């Protein structure tokens, strides 16, 4: 048993966990953060960050304006048959690789005094006598507050009551694949190209590379003998834009980065007294490019409420209820809109029809896009 009692223990060092750690440490709180990987590392992600979190990231110390990162203010969308349109984005976003973003945030956290344990996987968590006991790397750590910021899927889910991983039909089971490539594409544009049972995003990130990342129903991969190259050839390259990119781009990894068994279930923002942050609380489908901003926005709200709890201005019960309500009021509508859009995308006939309609009524596209984005925080 480690004798320190930390103000806050954070499980998972993605954008949600790291930004919360930085804010709490900046306010003088003692924070321990567990991350199972070693920074810097690559992550499967489209790497487009909505502009709503630009100011917030700068406030927590991320020197975005001094970095050479592309600002993205237009979107091009194509249907499976290659019918396409381009629109300006009101809010837009910027491109930054997770390799750079997460590791820079980890450095900021360390400099603020966060105890950052890397290559340390949390394997157990217990709430007892108003304290959390967290097991990791054969030690037990104590904290007043525990945060689940471990992403979509983790062993931690299995040890938290009522969080048993539910069986998900293969229709709702996805695989995601990411490459960094060199390609000819305007730096201010994100492109989303549909293919049968999936879609692929491509946009510029730091370092002059482009992130090419796609999400597909796992059925596509199974139907192609679990051979990624074969699936790309047989399914993705039926879209003429994707055919061009897969034929002409220079691929920078030997092998793509992949994750499987992705689902987009609705979850709960508080479980067993643990406050859930980012994808652990509920994830948005990547199509709307907003999961990172949601995780960071939730970290700001969690920070404000945790401060009140640690200052003994609110009880634990109040903290949990207030956080749960705040999370729902901020994100429930976005998640719903996202579900509708996800339903439209990746279906051959439907996307061909929908894109043809959206082309004629561009203001509907603007409404859809605006409903998936929040405002600056
Ligand atoms: C294909 C795809 C494309 C996407 N594209 C975009 C995009 O372009 N823009 C966008 O905004 N969002 C995108 N998203 C969503 C975005 O990646 C997530 O919403 C975001 O990463 C959530 O951040 P997080 O901090 O909650 O979790 P994560 O970034 O997933 O971080 C969780 C961390 O917890 C660690 N961890 C897990 N279990 C343990 C454990 N037991 N002990 C210790 N550490 C643990 C993991 O190693 C990981 O580093 C995409 C998602 C997918 C699947």
> What's the rounded overall pLDDT mean?
90
- Which homologous superfamily in CATH is the superfamily of the largest domain? FAD/NAD(P)-binding domain
> DSSP helix count?
11
- Structure ligands: flavin-adenine dinucleotide
Please explain how this structure is put together.
This protein has eleven helices and 17 strands. A hairpin with a 5-residue loop joins strand 4 and strand 5. The longest helix is centred in the last third of the chain and has 29 residues, at 316-344. With 377 residues, it is an alpha/beta fold. It is globular and about 60 Å long. The chain folds into two domains: 5-42 and 98-164 and 266-339, FAD/NAD(P)-binding domain (3-Layer(bba) Sandwich), CATH 3.50.50; 64-97 and 168-263 and 345-372, FAD/NAD(P)-binding domain, CATH 3.50.50.60. The protein has helices at 15-26, 54-59, 98-111, 155-159, 218-223, 228-234, 240-248, 291-310, 316-344, 348-360, 362-372; strands at 5-11, 31-34, 48-50, 71-78, 84-95, 115-117, 122-128, 131-136, 139-148, 174-182, 189-195, 198-204, 210-217, 250-251, 257-262, 270-271, 274-276. Strands 3, 4, 5, 10, 11, 12, 13, 14 and 15 form a nine-stranded mixed β-sheet that branches. Strands 1, 2, 6, 7, 8, 9, 16 and 17 form an eight-stranded mixed β-sheet that branches. Helix content is 35%, strand content 28%. Flavin-adenine dinucleotide (FAD) binds next to helix 1, strand 3, helix 4, strand 13 and helix 8.
């Amino acid at each position: 048993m480690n004798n320190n009692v930390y103000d806050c223990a954070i499980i998972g060092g993605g954008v949600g966990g790291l930004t919360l750690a930085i804010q709490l440490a900046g306010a003088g709180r003692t924070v321990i953060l567990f991350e199972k990987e070693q920074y810097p590392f690559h992550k499967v992600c489209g790497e487009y960050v909505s502009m709503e979190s630009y100011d917030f990231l700068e406030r927590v110390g991320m020197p975005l304006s001094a970095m050479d990162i592309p600002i993205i203010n237009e979107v091009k969308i194509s249907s499976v048959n290659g019918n396409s349109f381009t629109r300006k984005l009101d809010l837009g976003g910027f491109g930054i690789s997770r390799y750079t973003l997460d590791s820079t945030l980890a450095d900021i956290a360390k400099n603020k005094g966060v105890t950052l344990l890397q290559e340390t996987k949390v394997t157990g968590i217990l709430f007892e006598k108003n304290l959390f006991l967290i097991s990791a790397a054969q030690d037990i750590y104590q904290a007043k507050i525990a945060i689940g910021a471990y992403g979509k899927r983790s062993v931690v889910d299995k040890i938290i009551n009522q969080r048993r991983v539910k069986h998900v039909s293969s229709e709702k089971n996805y695989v995601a694949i990411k490459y960094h490539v060199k390609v000819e594409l305007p730096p201010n544009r994100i492109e989303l190209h549909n293919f049968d049972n999936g879609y692929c995003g491509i946009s510029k990130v730091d370092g002059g590379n482009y992130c090419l990342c796609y999400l597909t129903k796992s059925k596509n991969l199974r139907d192609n003998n679990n051979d990624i190259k074969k699936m790309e050839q047989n399914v993705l390259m039926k879209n003429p834009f994707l055919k061009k990119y897969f034929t002409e781009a220079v691929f920078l990894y030997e092998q793509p980065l992949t994750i499987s068994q992705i689902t987009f279930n609705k979850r709960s923002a508080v479980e067993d007294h643990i406050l859930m942050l980012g994808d652990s609380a509920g994830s948005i489908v990547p199509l709307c490019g907003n999961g990172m901003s949601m995780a960071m926005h939730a970290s700001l709200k969690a920070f404000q409420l945790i401060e009140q709890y640690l200052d003994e201005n609110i009880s634990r019960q109040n903290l949990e209820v207030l956080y749960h309500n705040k999370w729902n009021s901020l994100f429930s509508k976005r998640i719903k809109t996202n579900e509708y859009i996800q339903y439209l995308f990746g279906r051959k006939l439907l996307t061909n029809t929908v894109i043809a309609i959206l082309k004629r009524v561009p203001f509907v596209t603007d409404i859809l896009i605006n409903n998936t984005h929040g405002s600056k925080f």
